[in-house]
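Input chain follows. Return structure tokens only.
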Amino acid sequence: MIPIAQQAGSSSAACADSTSFVCDTVYQWTGNEAVAGIAAWLLGRGLVLALILVGGWLVSRTVKRAIEHFTERIGRPDLRDVGRDPAANEEAETVRAKARAETLAVVLRSVAQTTIWALTALLALGQLNINLGPLLAGAGVVGIAIGFGAQSVVRDFLAGISMMIEDIYSVGDDIDFGRGRGTVEKISLRSTSIRTRQGTVWNVPNGKLDFVANYSQLWARAQIDVEVPYDCDLREAMEVIRRAGFEMWEDPEWGEDELSEPPEVKGVQNLAESGVFIRVRAKTRPSVQWRTERELRLRIKEALDSAGIEMPFPHRTVIIRGGDHDGGS
């Protein structure tokens, strides 16, 4: 075999852009300039390009696994207090948590995959001798313009992700969003659709929901104040109210479905102008506290009427002072 050092001159033209050992060797073996150039590129930039693509794929797989573990953790139901029927509440919370986790998983995977493969593509283009300076400069200008023009969109997007992670509310929840109260009908990363009791649908950007009261998480509480007259026996009145609440608890329509525990008479809440207020409180399933309060008022009113305890009404004392009148002659 002819020594490679002696053939350097004959291979210099074919490997003008790549004077590597591989190029010279392949040219000496084949005598073909194209084959020698391709071999040099494959074992040079081509190998680096392959490593970049494999690295991007490995990073993508790793991030995907991390997102799956993260969403699996937040997909577990929050069972701090499941009320009287843990099985039913646990099932409902499991469905709710799973839906939230799936939504977050789709969003996080899309963002992560786009970011990883965009960086991988830039690195790969650099290995293809493509000048990335103008491309990066143009992308930077576009990014700054979008950043200034879409600040509210970015804020709404981040607020939507935070809302889903923290499980502030979900579709079907009854919430108070500051300007009214309604039921959540649709949630996206950009906005939330809420239908009020009057049927109006509000589309509120997530970044505008600064304070949200949720009436539908885990459990709720029905609370009413019953006014009785001053001249009645308060202990008897409280016993009548307690029995009315216990009868409601024993009613299968309410005690098995709506109420989580028997209504409790808390005692005298206020001494008002016309009567005494007695507070009654009951733990219920979420979003049914208002219906429970209406039924509880009806039953207590009927029980008080049966016991002969009248509801008080305002009293006014009118004092008429008569003056001296001079008789005419």
